[in-house]
Fold this protein.
Amino acid sequence: MKHNLILRVIAKYLFPVIALFAFYVQFHGDYGPGGGFQAGVILSVAFILYTLVFGLDTAEQVLSPGVLRILACTGVLLYAGTGVVTMLFGGNFLDYDLLALNPIEGQHIGIMLIELGVGVTVSAIMLVIFFAFAGRERS
Amino acid sequence: MKNITVTVLIDTLIDITLLAFLAITAIAIIYMRNLFVIIMLFGIFSLHTAGLFVVMDAADVAFTEAAIGAGISTVLMLGTLALTKNHEEKNPPHRARLPLLVVLITGGALIYGTYDIPSFGDPQSPSQQHVKPRYIERSVEETGVANTVTAVLASYRGYDTLGELTVIFTAGIGVMLLIGGRLTRRKKQADEQ
Amino acid sequence: MIDIIVGHYNYWVVIFLMMAGFYTVIDRGNLIKKIAGLSIFQTSVFLLYISIGYVSDGTTPIIAEGFTRYSNPLPHVLILTAIVVGVSTTALGLALIVRINEAYGTIEEDEIHEQDKSL
Protein backbone atom coordinates (compact mmCIF):
# COMPACT_ATOMS: atom_id res chain seq x y z
CA MET A 1 0.00 0.00 0.00
CA LYS A 2 3.07 2.23 0.12
CA HIS A 3 2.56 3.61 -3.37
CA ASN A 4 -1.12 4.47 -3.15
CA LEU A 5 -1.11 8.27 -3.11
CA ILE A 6 -4.82 8.80 -2.34
CA LEU A 7 -4.72 6.44 0.64
CA ARG A 8 -1.59 8.08 2.01
CA VAL A 9 -2.99 11.61 1.78
CA ILE A 10 -6.36 10.66 3.26
CA ALA A 11 -4.74 8.69 6.08
CA LYS A 12 -2.55 11.68 6.90
CA TYR A 13 -5.57 13.96 7.21
CA LEU A 14 -7.71 11.39 9.05
CA PHE A 15 -5.11 10.67 11.71
CA PRO A 16 -5.43 13.97 13.65
CA VAL A 17 -9.23 13.89 13.33
CA ILE A 18 -9.48 10.39 14.84
CA ALA A 19 -6.96 11.27 17.58
CA LEU A 20 -8.87 14.46 18.43
CA PHE A 21 -12.12 12.49 18.61
CA ALA A 22 -10.41 10.04 20.97
CA PHE A 23 -9.41 12.87 23.32
CA TYR A 24 -12.95 14.30 23.14
CA VAL A 25 -14.40 10.92 24.10
CA GLN A 26 -11.85 10.59 26.90
CA PHE A 27 -12.56 13.91 28.60
CA HIS A 28 -16.24 14.26 27.72
CA GLY A 29 -17.10 10.86 29.20
CA ASP A 30 -18.49 12.52 32.34
CA TYR A 31 -21.29 14.25 30.44
CA GLY A 32 -21.98 12.06 27.43
CA PRO A 33 -21.32 8.53 26.25
CA GLY A 34 -17.63 7.77 26.40
CA GLY A 35 -14.77 7.16 28.78
CA GLY A 36 -11.36 5.60 29.01
CA PHE A 37 -12.13 2.25 27.36
CA GLN A 38 -13.66 3.76 24.23
CA ALA A 39 -11.09 6.56 23.96
CA GLY A 40 -8.19 4.12 24.27
CA VAL A 41 -9.56 1.96 21.50
CA ILE A 42 -10.25 4.92 19.19
CA LEU A 43 -6.73 6.31 19.72
CA SER A 44 -5.22 2.91 18.92
CA VAL A 45 -7.38 2.72 15.78
CA ALA A 46 -5.77 5.98 14.59
CA PHE A 47 -2.31 4.39 14.92
CA ILE A 48 -3.51 1.14 13.31
CA LEU A 49 -4.70 3.13 10.27
CA TYR A 50 -1.30 4.83 10.13
CA THR A 51 0.48 1.45 10.34
CA LEU A 52 -1.70 -0.12 7.64
CA VAL A 53 -0.96 2.69 5.20
CA PHE A 54 2.67 3.60 5.97
CA GLY A 55 4.04 0.22 7.06
CA LEU A 56 5.17 -1.21 10.37
CA ASP A 57 8.71 0.18 10.29
CA THR A 58 7.55 3.81 9.91
CA ALA A 59 4.98 3.31 12.66
CA GLU A 60 7.60 1.92 15.03
CA GLN A 61 9.76 5.00 14.43
CA VAL A 62 6.82 7.14 15.54
CA LEU A 63 5.93 4.95 18.52
CA SER A 64 8.59 2.46 19.53
CA PRO A 65 7.62 -0.85 21.20
CA GLY A 66 9.58 0.10 24.32
CA VAL A 67 7.55 3.28 24.79
CA LEU A 68 4.33 1.31 24.32
CA ARG A 69 5.31 -1.18 27.04
CA ILE A 70 6.13 1.64 29.45
CA LEU A 71 2.79 3.36 28.62
CA ALA A 72 0.86 0.12 29.21
CA CYS A 73 2.38 -0.18 32.68
CA THR A 74 1.92 3.54 33.42
CA GLY A 75 -1.85 3.31 32.98
CA VAL A 76 -2.32 0.47 35.46
CA LEU A 77 0.09 2.18 37.89
CA LEU A 78 -1.82 5.47 37.59
CA TYR A 79 -5.08 3.66 38.41
CA ALA A 80 -3.72 1.71 41.37
CA GLY A 81 -1.61 4.70 42.45
CA THR A 82 -4.72 6.86 42.76
CA GLY A 83 -6.08 4.25 45.16
CA VAL A 84 -2.85 4.25 47.17
CA VAL A 85 -2.84 8.07 47.36
CA THR A 86 -6.37 8.07 48.79
CA MET A 87 -5.16 5.53 51.36
CA LEU A 88 -2.27 7.85 52.28
CA PHE A 89 -4.81 10.62 52.85
CA GLY A 90 -6.44 8.37 55.43
CA GLY A 91 -9.36 6.99 53.44
CA ASN A 92 -10.17 3.64 51.85
CA PHE A 93 -8.63 2.35 48.61
CA LEU A 94 -10.09 4.38 45.67
CA ASP A 95 -12.07 6.67 48.01
CA TYR A 96 -11.85 9.83 45.87
CA ASP A 97 -13.69 12.09 48.34
CA LEU A 98 -10.38 12.93 50.05
CA LEU A 99 -8.47 14.04 46.95
CA ALA A 100 -9.74 17.63 47.25
CA LEU A 101 -11.32 19.79 49.92
CA ASN A 102 -14.90 19.00 48.98
CA PRO A 103 -16.09 15.49 48.01
CA ILE A 104 -17.50 16.45 44.58
CA GLU A 105 -14.19 18.02 43.52
CA GLY A 106 -12.38 14.96 44.83
CA GLN A 107 -14.65 12.61 42.89
CA HIS A 108 -14.04 14.69 39.77
CA ILE A 109 -10.26 14.49 40.08
CA GLY A 110 -10.34 10.79 40.96
CA ILE A 111 -12.62 9.81 38.08
CA MET A 112 -10.53 11.82 35.62
CA LEU A 113 -7.28 10.22 36.81
CA ILE A 114 -8.48 6.65 36.65
CA GLU A 115 -10.20 7.19 33.27
CA LEU A 116 -6.86 8.51 32.03
CA GLY A 117 -5.13 5.40 33.38
CA VAL A 118 -7.70 3.16 31.65
CA GLY A 119 -7.34 5.07 28.37
CA VAL A 120 -3.52 4.92 28.34
CA THR A 121 -3.36 1.20 29.16
CA VAL A 122 -6.11 0.16 26.75
CA SER A 123 -4.63 2.06 23.79
CA ALA A 124 -1.09 0.85 24.53
CA ILE A 125 -2.15 -2.80 24.94
CA MET A 126 -4.26 -2.74 21.75
CA LEU A 127 -1.24 -1.38 19.85
CA VAL A 128 1.11 -3.91 21.46
CA ILE A 129 -1.23 -6.72 20.33
CA PHE A 130 -1.59 -5.28 16.82
CA PHE A 131 2.16 -4.74 16.39
CA ALA A 132 2.79 -8.30 17.62
CA PHE A 133 0.51 -9.70 14.89
CA ALA A 134 1.81 -7.32 12.24
CA GLY A 135 5.48 -7.99 13.02
CA ARG A 136 5.20 -11.78 12.86
CA GLU A 137 6.56 -13.42 9.73
CA ARG A 138 4.34 -15.82 7.81
CA SER A 139 5.63 -19.33 8.48
CA MET B 1 -49.73 9.21 24.98
CA LYS B 2 -50.20 8.39 21.30
CA ASN B 3 -46.64 9.54 20.56
CA ILE B 4 -45.22 7.11 23.08
CA THR B 5 -46.98 4.12 21.48
CA VAL B 6 -45.60 5.10 18.08
CA THR B 7 -42.03 5.28 19.47
CA VAL B 8 -42.38 1.91 21.16
CA LEU B 9 -43.71 0.43 17.91
CA ILE B 10 -40.79 1.83 15.90
CA ASP B 11 -38.33 0.58 18.54
CA THR B 12 -39.85 -2.91 18.38
CA LEU B 13 -39.73 -2.91 14.58
CA ILE B 14 -36.04 -1.93 14.47
CA ASP B 15 -35.35 -4.47 17.23
CA ILE B 16 -36.96 -7.34 15.28
CA THR B 17 -35.23 -6.34 12.02
CA LEU B 18 -31.78 -6.24 13.64
CA LEU B 19 -32.37 -9.53 15.47
CA ALA B 20 -33.37 -11.14 12.15
CA PHE B 21 -30.19 -9.80 10.51
CA LEU B 22 -28.14 -11.20 13.41
CA ALA B 23 -29.74 -14.64 13.10
CA ILE B 24 -29.11 -14.70 9.32
CA THR B 25 -25.48 -13.65 9.80
CA ALA B 26 -24.94 -16.34 12.46
CA ILE B 27 -26.37 -19.06 10.16
CA ALA B 28 -24.20 -17.77 7.28
CA ILE B 29 -21.11 -17.99 9.51
CA ILE B 30 -21.90 -21.66 10.26
CA TYR B 31 -22.34 -22.55 6.57
CA MET B 32 -19.52 -20.54 4.98
CA ARG B 33 -16.17 -22.28 4.33
CA ASN B 34 -14.05 -19.34 3.18
CA LEU B 35 -12.37 -17.93 6.29
CA PHE B 36 -12.09 -14.40 4.87
CA VAL B 37 -15.87 -14.32 4.34
CA ILE B 38 -16.41 -15.64 7.88
CA ILE B 39 -14.29 -12.84 9.37
CA MET B 40 -16.09 -10.18 7.34
CA LEU B 41 -19.47 -11.62 8.40
CA PHE B 42 -18.28 -11.48 12.00
CA GLY B 43 -17.56 -7.75 11.55
CA ILE B 44 -21.08 -7.27 10.20
CA PHE B 45 -22.46 -9.26 13.15
CA SER B 46 -20.69 -6.95 15.61
CA LEU B 47 -21.91 -3.81 13.86
CA HIS B 48 -25.52 -5.05 13.98
CA THR B 49 -25.07 -5.85 17.66
CA ALA B 50 -23.91 -2.26 18.21
CA GLY B 51 -27.10 -1.06 16.48
CA LEU B 52 -29.16 -3.28 18.74
CA PHE B 53 -27.42 -1.83 21.81
CA VAL B 54 -28.48 1.67 20.68
CA VAL B 55 -32.10 0.47 20.40
CA MET B 56 -31.83 -0.94 23.92
CA ASP B 57 -30.66 2.45 25.30
CA ALA B 58 -27.06 1.41 25.96
CA ALA B 59 -25.14 4.15 24.12
CA ASP B 60 -21.82 3.55 25.90
CA VAL B 61 -21.88 -0.18 25.18
CA ALA B 62 -22.84 0.40 21.54
CA PHE B 63 -19.93 2.81 21.18
CA THR B 64 -17.49 0.24 22.56
CA GLU B 65 -18.89 -2.64 20.52
CA ALA B 66 -18.70 -0.64 17.29
CA ALA B 67 -15.08 0.36 17.92
CA ILE B 68 -13.89 -3.03 19.19
CA GLY B 69 -16.09 -5.75 17.70
CA ALA B 70 -16.30 -4.32 14.21
CA GLY B 71 -12.89 -2.62 14.30
CA ILE B 72 -10.10 -4.21 16.31
CA SER B 73 -11.41 -7.83 16.48
CA THR B 74 -11.80 -7.97 12.70
CA VAL B 75 -8.33 -6.52 12.13
CA LEU B 76 -6.76 -9.04 14.54
CA MET B 77 -8.58 -11.99 12.92
CA LEU B 78 -7.45 -10.81 9.48
CA GLY B 79 -3.91 -10.55 10.85
CA THR B 80 -4.08 -14.17 12.02
CA LEU B 81 -5.47 -15.25 8.66
CA ALA B 82 -2.56 -13.51 6.90
CA LEU B 83 -0.12 -15.44 9.09
CA THR B 84 -1.65 -18.85 8.33
CA LYS B 85 -1.61 -20.63 5.00
CA ASN B 86 -5.02 -22.19 4.54
CA HIS B 87 -7.80 -19.73 3.76
CA GLU B 88 -10.43 -22.37 3.19
CA GLU B 89 -11.98 -24.52 5.86
CA LYS B 90 -11.86 -28.23 5.03
CA ASN B 91 -15.02 -30.30 4.88
CA PRO B 92 -15.63 -32.05 8.15
CA PRO B 93 -14.77 -35.73 7.55
CA HIS B 94 -18.01 -36.99 9.08
CA ARG B 95 -21.33 -35.30 9.77
CA ALA B 96 -21.48 -35.66 13.53
CA ARG B 97 -24.92 -35.85 15.10
CA LEU B 98 -23.75 -35.50 18.69
CA PRO B 99 -22.85 -31.74 18.61
CA LEU B 100 -26.26 -30.90 17.12
CA LEU B 101 -27.98 -32.93 19.83
CA VAL B 102 -25.97 -31.24 22.59
CA VAL B 103 -26.75 -27.79 21.18
CA LEU B 104 -30.47 -28.54 20.83
CA ILE B 105 -30.76 -29.86 24.39
CA THR B 106 -28.81 -26.90 25.84
CA GLY B 107 -30.86 -24.42 23.81
CA GLY B 108 -34.11 -26.08 24.87
CA ALA B 109 -33.11 -25.92 28.52
CA LEU B 110 -32.18 -22.24 28.21
CA ILE B 111 -35.46 -21.38 26.47
CA TYR B 112 -37.35 -23.23 29.20
CA GLY B 113 -35.40 -21.07 31.68
CA THR B 114 -36.58 -17.82 30.07
CA TYR B 115 -40.19 -18.44 31.23
CA ASP B 116 -39.12 -17.32 34.69
CA ILE B 117 -37.49 -14.11 33.42
CA PRO B 118 -39.74 -11.01 33.55
CA SER B 119 -40.90 -9.72 30.16
CA PHE B 120 -38.52 -7.72 27.97
CA GLY B 121 -38.56 -4.06 29.09
CA ASP B 122 -40.70 -4.63 32.19
CA PRO B 123 -40.09 -1.65 34.55
CA GLN B 124 -41.20 -3.75 37.58
CA SER B 125 -38.64 -6.51 37.07
CA PRO B 126 -36.25 -7.22 40.00
CA SER B 127 -33.21 -6.03 38.02
CA GLN B 128 -34.80 -2.58 37.77
CA GLN B 129 -35.68 -2.44 41.48
CA HIS B 130 -32.48 -3.39 43.25
CA VAL B 131 -29.52 -0.96 43.08
CA LYS B 132 -30.61 0.99 40.01
CA PRO B 133 -32.86 3.57 41.77
CA ARG B 134 -30.00 4.38 44.13
CA TYR B 135 -27.58 4.94 41.23
CA ILE B 136 -30.05 7.05 39.26
CA GLU B 137 -31.14 9.22 42.18
CA ARG B 138 -27.90 9.79 44.05
CA SER B 139 -25.06 9.54 41.49
CA VAL B 140 -25.20 13.20 40.42
CA GLU B 141 -25.09 14.60 43.96
CA GLU B 142 -22.49 12.05 45.10
CA THR B 143 -20.07 12.14 42.16
CA GLY B 144 -21.07 15.20 40.11
CA VAL B 145 -21.04 13.10 36.92
CA ALA B 146 -24.11 13.19 34.66
CA ASN B 147 -23.33 9.94 32.86
CA THR B 148 -24.38 7.24 35.32
CA VAL B 149 -22.40 4.59 33.45
CA THR B 150 -19.16 6.53 34.02
CA ALA B 151 -20.10 7.16 37.68
CA VAL B 152 -20.72 3.45 38.33
CA LEU B 153 -17.69 2.34 36.29
CA ALA B 154 -15.16 4.69 37.84
CA SER B 155 -16.52 5.43 41.28
CA TYR B 156 -19.03 2.92 42.66
CA ARG B 157 -17.38 -0.11 41.10
CA GLY B 158 -13.79 1.14 40.93
CA TYR B 159 -12.34 -2.13 42.24
CA ASP B 160 -14.09 -4.07 39.49
CA THR B 161 -12.68 -1.80 36.76
CA LEU B 162 -9.17 -2.07 38.23
CA GLY B 163 -9.49 -5.85 37.98
CA GLU B 164 -10.71 -5.67 34.38
CA LEU B 165 -7.84 -3.35 33.46
CA THR B 166 -5.38 -5.82 34.98
CA VAL B 167 -6.91 -8.63 32.90
CA ILE B 168 -6.42 -6.57 29.72
CA PHE B 169 -2.84 -5.79 30.75
CA THR B 170 -2.12 -9.47 31.46
CA ALA B 171 -3.63 -10.57 28.14
CA GLY B 172 -1.40 -8.01 26.39
CA ILE B 173 1.67 -9.42 28.15
CA GLY B 174 0.58 -12.93 27.12
CA VAL B 175 0.32 -11.94 23.45
CA MET B 176 3.69 -10.20 23.69
CA LEU B 177 5.28 -13.34 25.14
CA LEU B 178 3.66 -15.65 22.58
CA ILE B 179 4.28 -13.75 19.36
CA GLY B 180 6.15 -10.58 20.42
CA GLY B 181 7.96 -9.05 17.46
CA ARG B 182 11.50 -8.63 18.71
CA LEU B 183 12.76 -12.21 18.37
CA THR B 184 11.41 -12.74 14.85
CA ARG B 185 12.75 -9.42 13.67
CA ARG B 186 16.26 -10.31 14.87
CA LYS B 187 15.99 -13.66 13.10
CA LYS B 188 14.89 -11.89 9.92
CA GLN B 189 17.89 -9.54 10.04
CA ALA B 190 20.21 -12.49 10.65
CA ASP B 191 18.71 -14.27 7.64
CA GLU B 192 19.23 -11.22 5.45
CA GLN B 193 22.89 -11.03 6.41
CA MET C 1 -49.48 -17.00 24.98
CA ILE C 2 -49.14 -13.77 22.95
CA ASP C 3 -47.87 -12.09 26.12
CA ILE C 4 -45.11 -14.64 26.50
CA ILE C 5 -44.06 -14.33 22.84
CA VAL C 6 -44.04 -10.51 22.89
CA GLY C 7 -42.19 -10.41 26.21
CA HIS C 8 -39.62 -13.08 25.43
CA TYR C 9 -38.84 -13.14 21.68
CA ASN C 10 -35.72 -11.07 22.35
CA TYR C 11 -34.34 -13.65 24.78
CA TRP C 12 -35.18 -16.49 22.39
CA VAL C 13 -33.29 -14.95 19.48
CA VAL C 14 -30.35 -14.27 21.80
CA ILE C 15 -30.39 -17.94 22.87
CA PHE C 16 -30.52 -18.98 19.22
CA LEU C 17 -27.40 -16.87 18.51
CA MET C 18 -25.72 -18.32 21.57
CA MET C 19 -26.38 -21.86 20.36
CA ALA C 20 -25.19 -20.98 16.83
CA GLY C 21 -21.87 -19.86 18.34
CA PHE C 22 -21.72 -22.93 20.59
CA TYR C 23 -22.39 -25.26 17.63
CA THR C 24 -19.59 -23.59 15.63
CA VAL C 25 -17.20 -24.10 18.55
CA ILE C 26 -17.91 -27.78 19.14
CA ASP C 27 -18.61 -29.02 15.61
CA ARG C 28 -16.16 -27.21 13.32
CA GLY C 29 -12.50 -28.18 13.18
CA ASN C 30 -10.92 -24.97 11.91
CA LEU C 31 -9.40 -22.98 14.77
CA ILE C 32 -10.11 -19.50 13.34
CA LYS C 33 -13.73 -20.51 12.81
CA LYS C 34 -13.86 -21.76 16.39
CA ILE C 35 -12.67 -18.36 17.61
CA ALA C 36 -15.33 -16.64 15.46
CA GLY C 37 -17.96 -18.94 17.00
CA LEU C 38 -16.68 -18.23 20.49
CA SER C 39 -16.93 -14.48 19.80
CA ILE C 40 -20.53 -14.91 18.61
CA PHE C 41 -21.31 -16.78 21.82
CA GLN C 42 -19.71 -13.97 23.80
CA THR C 43 -21.58 -11.23 21.93
CA SER C 44 -24.91 -12.95 22.51
CA VAL C 45 -24.20 -13.08 26.25
CA PHE C 46 -23.64 -9.30 26.07
CA LEU C 47 -27.00 -8.97 24.31
CA LEU C 48 -28.70 -11.02 27.04
CA TYR C 49 -27.35 -8.75 29.78
CA ILE C 50 -28.33 -5.55 27.97
CA SER C 51 -31.82 -7.00 27.28
CA ILE C 52 -32.30 -7.55 31.01
CA GLY C 53 -31.31 -3.94 31.74
CA TYR C 54 -33.70 -2.49 29.14
CA VAL C 55 -36.82 -0.57 30.17
CA SER C 56 -39.48 0.02 27.53
CA ASP C 57 -39.98 3.71 26.85
CA GLY C 58 -36.86 4.60 28.87
CA THR C 59 -33.69 6.39 27.83
CA THR C 60 -29.90 6.07 28.04
CA PRO C 61 -28.72 6.48 31.67
CA ILE C 62 -27.27 9.98 31.28
CA ILE C 63 -29.08 12.13 33.82
CA ALA C 64 -30.82 15.09 32.18
CA GLU C 65 -33.80 17.27 32.97
CA GLY C 66 -37.14 16.14 31.63
CA PHE C 67 -36.40 12.42 31.83
CA THR C 68 -37.32 10.14 34.69
CA ARG C 69 -37.10 6.68 33.18
CA TYR C 70 -33.62 5.33 32.51
CA SER C 71 -32.38 1.88 31.60
CA ASN C 72 -30.31 0.06 34.24
CA PRO C 73 -26.69 1.32 34.17
CA LEU C 74 -25.22 -1.67 36.01
CA PRO C 75 -25.37 -4.23 33.12
CA HIS C 76 -23.98 -1.51 30.84
CA VAL C 77 -20.91 -1.12 33.06
CA LEU C 78 -20.36 -4.87 33.32
CA ILE C 79 -20.66 -5.39 29.56
CA LEU C 80 -18.62 -2.32 28.65
CA THR C 81 -15.61 -3.71 30.47
CA ALA C 82 -16.39 -7.28 29.33
CA ILE C 83 -16.20 -6.23 25.65
CA VAL C 84 -12.69 -4.82 26.04
CA VAL C 85 -11.57 -7.81 28.13
CA GLY C 86 -13.17 -10.05 25.48
CA VAL C 87 -11.11 -8.60 22.65
CA SER C 88 -7.87 -8.97 24.57
CA THR C 89 -8.59 -12.61 25.43
CA THR C 90 -9.60 -13.23 21.79
CA ALA C 91 -6.25 -11.75 20.78
CA LEU C 92 -4.55 -14.20 23.16
CA GLY C 93 -6.43 -17.08 21.51
CA LEU C 94 -5.45 -15.84 18.05
CA ALA C 95 -1.81 -15.58 19.17
CA LEU C 96 -1.99 -19.22 20.27
CA ILE C 97 -3.38 -20.12 16.82
CA VAL C 98 -0.42 -18.38 15.18
CA ARG C 99 1.97 -20.41 17.33
CA ILE C 100 0.08 -23.66 16.64
CA ASN C 101 0.29 -22.92 12.93
CA GLU C 102 4.04 -22.38 13.21
CA ALA C 103 4.51 -25.63 15.12
CA TYR C 104 2.19 -27.93 13.15
CA GLY C 105 1.80 -26.15 9.81
CA THR C 106 -2.00 -26.37 9.97
CA ILE C 107 -4.95 -24.91 11.84
CA GLU C 108 -7.31 -27.86 11.28
CA GLU C 109 -8.02 -29.70 14.51
CA ASP C 110 -8.05 -33.27 13.14
CA GLU C 111 -4.74 -32.80 11.31
CA ILE C 112 -3.15 -31.57 14.55
CA HIS C 113 -4.49 -34.67 16.35
CA GLU C 114 -3.07 -36.95 13.64
CA GLN C 115 0.37 -35.34 13.94
CA ASP C 116 0.22 -35.76 17.72
CA LYS C 117 -0.68 -39.44 17.36
CA SER C 118 2.10 -40.22 14.86
CA LEU C 119 4.76 -38.89 17.24
About this structure: DSSP finds nine helices and no strands in chain B.
